[in-house]
Amino acid sequence: VQLQASGGGLVQPGDSLRLSCAASGFTFRGRIMGWFRQAPGKEREFVAAISWNGGLTDVADSVKGRFTISRDDAKDTGYLQMNRLGAADTAIYLCAADPFRWADRAEQSAYDYWGQGTQVTVSS
Q1: What DSSP string runs through 33-67?
Q2: Is the dihedral angle over the CA atoms 18, 19, 25, 30 positive or is it negative?
Q3: Can you give the pLDDT at residue 86?
Q4: What gap in Å lies between CA 121 and CA 107, rounded to an integer?
Q5: Average pLDDT of 114-124?
Q6: DSSP character for 119?
Q7: b/e 74-86 (16+ beta carbons within 10 angstroms → b)
Q8: In b/e form, how buried is each residue of 49-69, taking b as 16+ CB within 10 angstroms?
Q9: Are residues 64 and 51 in contact, defined by beta-carbon separation less than 8 angstroms?
Q10: Quick one: pLDDT at residue 36?
Q11: Residue 6: which H helix or E strand, with range?
């Protein structure tokens, strides 16, 4: 079972990035997927989640209106589109899957599978 996050990098303030989370070794379809991030010296925080069929999405207030989560079950891949990036978005971004309930989407402990993370650095 593996989740592989990719797409991070060094960008300037105001730029955009799209992160990908590719699943292997288990059935991605039908599972809730989430993104979390951890900045240096800070605790890991919830960023976004998408329901098992993509019908529901949720993003943290800090990224609302700038970040969009999506999924392509045919490719066993989830995405996080990040626009208007700022220095506060600098962090390691991790994807995770399969909390049992949608109500637990923001709870790290509810996720069964985690990727290794991809670094996003926003700097001029």
Answers
A1: EEEEEE-TTS--EEEEEE-TTSS-EEE-GGGTTTE
A2: negative
A3: 97
A4: 25
A5: 95
A6: E
A7: eebbbbbebeebe
A8: bbbbeeeeebbbeebeeebbb
A9: no
A10: 98
A11: strand 2-6
Q: For tokens 């923001």, what's the residue?
A: 106
Two structure tokens written together for 122: 């926003």
Alpha carbon distance 43, 63 (integer Å): 17
Q: Are 118 and 19 in contact (CB under 8 A)?
A: yes
Residue 67 corresponds to which amino acid? F
Give 22's contacts (C-beta < 8 A, 6+ positions apart): 3, 4, 6, 75, 76, 77
Dmax over CA atoms of the chain, in Å, equals 40
Q: Cβ-count burial of 109 within 10 angstroms (0-12 exposed, 13-18 middle, 19+ buried)?
A: exposed
